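Bumping my old thread because nobody answered last time. Still need a sequence for this structure:
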């Protein structure tokens, strides 16, 4: 009998399983039971599609049995079974569900993470067993086969006898070693608790022979007798059918983990039991952490979709808008047909209603989180705030109304994240605009010269550090009738003495100086002028028009970027000593004016985080000033 080899990928995974340092070995039982349950589901679907087949609920169950003497654990199901080919294809190659993710960059990390993150399914049996034997008979076939493997070196398949359709998996449990105990997987109480923990909502009975003692009948001296009876271990009622009041946060967290919605703890759960225009139940989760692939193309949003307790789709993306794509969970509705196809689902009215309903529930849940559990909301926002801001911006702002009260920005005065509503409610009466400043980081924005004037006025400034921020705000346009204004924009709407002074400074003989500087900087800035916003800094750049410097940077960094240019203005602080030097240079020495103008311009670029065209020239210029 020739031994067959596992596919390379499977072999690697198997080796990892065998040498696993993973502490949660117990999940192997969850994996095998869920496979058994899937196999029974398949029988159920078959019966639905075929009138001649009757699905007798009593005939379908999963049985877990131990034999301590031979150190074996057997999991039997009455499901659809596997043919010879199926044994070969399904167990000879890595489980499809895990393979995609497994291939990714995680390869180099230790096994721990991979097992924790992805369903590795059947192979997890090798964490606790030396030998795994699968005897299976496919439904409708009269042949049975035995698949057997001792691990990474391969497997065998031979014909065998089995009366009924289904699968029987026998694990030869490993012997204890100095570090590791495997005996526990032969203990009835231990197995029962693992089943309760992970597989309680499996819809078919999971049976075990349970040993116990009871008072002997007819005996008067309280004599006890041993007995053994078959018991169903799982409660079978799915959590979403239970009453909210009967469930604890831990129950929901366990469900979240069991379903592998994430490997963090959910920040919040939403249990919906809708009885209105559409009837459905749902359990939704807001995760705490951003999944590692969340902001990539690989991430797939969606909810599990059940029809009357039967899973019909793993990731129904139509149930969630993109901007709430981080939400995990499931929906069960009696109103959906089981045999519905993907295309039909897209046009299903019920589904649209459910989706709308769910969207509103998520929004109100986030709002109350913001209101009542600020800290949690901020945690959430750090993980998914960017997604919300994208949501504001995308689809030409179609969803800005839904989302604008959920976005937050760092505030110059509060030194923490604040909402637009909070900002506006704090605005002094005379303040015209909602001010913001863009930059790479809070620390950098804090030092921006452009912000001086606004900050000096005591006005709050929102700091934009995400690429998307300014785009999102341009989409919102105004909030509670207040427009947004960048601290670098031409008109700050601030009435001040400085204004008139600057106006004057632009008027008189300085004009000649500014024009001279402007011609030195031809093609670089549109204008040179006296600044209204600078107090202690000598120069800064500002912009005219819609396009800001931050936006220019972002657009330029995009693939196939067009040559976009913000209309830049070099602003000079006429109250700064540097201004006098400029004037002196203008009067005495054209060469010097050139030098100073270029230096100041390059300094302004540096402050903005823009690249200097000729850094060598710049440093040489610096030296000229020094010697
Ligand atoms: P997954 O369940 O994610 O597909 P597994 O590694 O758990 O991955 O299982 C691989 C495949 O083996 C299953 O998809 C299924 O086709 C088959 N299989 C495993 N266990 C059984 C079983 N008890 N009855 C029928 N088929 C099974
Ligand atoms: Mg599986």
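Sorry it took so long. Here it is:
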């Amino acid at each position: 009998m020739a031994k067959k080899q596992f596919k390379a990928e499977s072999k690697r995974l198997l080796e990892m399983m065998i040498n696993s340092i993973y502490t949660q070995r117990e999940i192997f039982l969850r994996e095998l039971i869920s496979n058994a349950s899937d196999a029974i589901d398949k029988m159920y679907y078959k019966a639905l599609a075929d009138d001649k087949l009757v699905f007798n609920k009593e005939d379908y169950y999963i049985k877990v049995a131990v034999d301590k003497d031979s150190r074996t654990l057997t999991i039997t199901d009455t499901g659809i079974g596997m043919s010879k080919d199926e044994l070969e294809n399904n167990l000879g190659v890595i489980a499809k569900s895990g393979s995609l993710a497994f291939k990714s960059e995680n390869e180099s990390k230790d096994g721990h993470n991979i097992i924790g993150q992805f369903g590795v399914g059947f192979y997890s049996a090798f964490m606790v067993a030396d030998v795994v034997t699968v005897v299976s008979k496919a439904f409708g076939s009269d042949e049975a086969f035995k698949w057997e493997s001792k691990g990474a070196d391969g497997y065998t398949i031979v014909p065998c006898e089995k009366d009924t359709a289904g699968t029987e998996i026998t694990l030869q449990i490993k012997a204890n070693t100095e570090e590791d105990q495997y005996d526990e997987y032969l203990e009835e109480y231990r197995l029962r608790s693992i089943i309760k923990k992970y597989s309680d909502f499996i819809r078919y009975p999971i049976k075990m022979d349970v040993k116990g003692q009871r008072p002997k009948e007819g005996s008067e001296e309280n004599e006890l007798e041993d007995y053994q009876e078959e018991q169903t271990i799982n409660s079978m009622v799915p959590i979403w059918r239970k009453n909210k009041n009967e469930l604890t946060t831990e129950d929901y967290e366990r469900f979240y983990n069991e379903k592998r919605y994430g490997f963090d703890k959910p920040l919040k759960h939403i249990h919906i039991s809708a009885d209105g225009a559409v009837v459905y139940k749902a359990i939704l989760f807001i995760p705490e952490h951003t999944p590692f692939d969340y902001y990539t193309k690989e991430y797939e949003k969606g909810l599990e979709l059940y029809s009357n307790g039967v899973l019909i789709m793993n990731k129904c993306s139509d149930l969630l808008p993109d901007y709430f794509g981080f939400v995990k969970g499931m929906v069960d509705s009696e109103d959906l047909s089981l045999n519905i196809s993907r295309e039909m689902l897209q046009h299903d009215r019920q589904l649209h209603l459910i989706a709308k309903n769910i969207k509103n529930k998520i929004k109100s849940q986030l709002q109350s989180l913001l209101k009542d559990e600020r800290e949690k909301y901020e945690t959430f926002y750090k993980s998914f705030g960017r997604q919300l801001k994208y949501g504001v911006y995308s689809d030409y702002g179609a969803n800005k109304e839904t989302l604008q009260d959920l976005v937050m920005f760092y505030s110059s005065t509060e030194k923490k994240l604040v909402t637009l509503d909070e900002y506006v409610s704090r605005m002094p009466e005379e303040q015209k605009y909602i001010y913001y400043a863009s930059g790479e980081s809070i620390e950098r924005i804090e030092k921006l010269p452009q912000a001086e004037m606004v900050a000096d006025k005591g006005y709050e400034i929102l700091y934009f550090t995400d690429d998307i921020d300014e785009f999102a705000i341009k989409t919102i346009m105004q909030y509670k009738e207040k427009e947004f204004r960048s601290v670098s924009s031409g008109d700050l709407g601030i009435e001040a003495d400085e204004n008139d002074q600057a106006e004057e400074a632009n008027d008189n003989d300085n004009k000649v100086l500014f024009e001279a500087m402007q011609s030195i900087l031809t093609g670089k800035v549109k204008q040179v002028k006296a600044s209204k916003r600078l107090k202690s800094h000598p120069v800064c750049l500002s912009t005219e028009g819609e396009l800001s410097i931050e936006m220019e940077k972002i657009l330029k960094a995009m693939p196939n970027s067009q040559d976009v240019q913000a209309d830049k203005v070099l602003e000079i602080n006429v109250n700064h000593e540097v201004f006098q030097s400029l004037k002196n240079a203008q009067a005495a020495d054209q060469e010097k004016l050139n030098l100073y103008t270029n230096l100041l311009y390059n300094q302004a670029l540096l402050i903005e985080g823009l690249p200097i065209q000729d850094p060598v020239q710049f440093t040489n210029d610096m030296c000229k000033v020094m010697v």
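The longest helix spans residues 349-372. Let me know if any region looks off to you.
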